[in-house]
UniProtKB/TrEMBL annotation:
Transmembrane segments: 21-43
Annotated compartments: Cell membrane
UniProt keyword Membrane, yes or no: yes
Pfam families: ExbD
A Gene Ontology biological process term: protein transport
Signal peptide range in chain numbering: none
Name this polypeptide is given: ExbD/TolR family protein
Organism: Parvibium lacunae
UniProt GO cellular component terms: plasma membrane
Family note: Belongs to the ExbD/TolR family.
Alphabetically ordered keywords of this record: Cell membrane, Membrane, Protein transport, Transmembrane, Transmembrane helix, Transport
Length: 149
């Protein structure tokens, strides 16, 4: 009887392959690449039709300005259509009530907060928050157009 030579594991003596054949994967990737290259020019990119707005013929009313000075003073500036302005000092607690009263008279009146650049941002946000709590509509921040991006 002939002795059958066995490996230490008890198998037939075949060695395990420790590398992966990647050629089929490369072939599949090349076929997919060709399909996408052929199909890409046929796809129409989505276009967005934006609405157009005509220029308003009626002159826009200047906004109501809430001015925060660097020393903490609050001013309320109203401008008329001729550009004449009147400023009045106002208390922080009376500001939302006064602005709400002015917006009841004119619902289209916009409000902007003009703060000195050295003032803490927290004070600006507190003012904005107090106006929003009273349901003041159309509130924004005024910036200097020369320094705007």
């Amino acid at each position: 009887m002939a002795a059958v030579q066995r490996s230490s594991r008890g198998g037939r003596g075949r060695r395990m392959m420790n590398d992966i054949n990647v050629v089929p994967y490369i072939d599949v990737m090349l076929v997919l690449l060709i399909i996408f290259m052929v199909a890409a020019p046929m796809i129409n990119p989505g276009t967005v039709d934006l609405p157009s707005v005509a220029k308003s013929t009626s002159p826009q009313r200047p906004p109501l300005e809430v001015i925060l000075k660097s020393n903490g003073d609050l001013l309320l500036r109203q401008r008329d259509k001729n550009g004449q302005s009147q400023e009045q000092p106002i208390n922080k607690n009376d500001l939302p009530l006064r602005v709400a009263e002015l917006q009841r008279e004119d619902p289209e009146l916009a409000v902007v907060i003009a703060a000195d650049k050295s003032i803490r941002y927290e004070l600006v946000m507190q003012t904005l928050s107090s106006l929003q709590k009273r349901q003041i509509q159309k509130v924004g921040l005024l910036v200097n157009p020369e320094n705007a991006p």
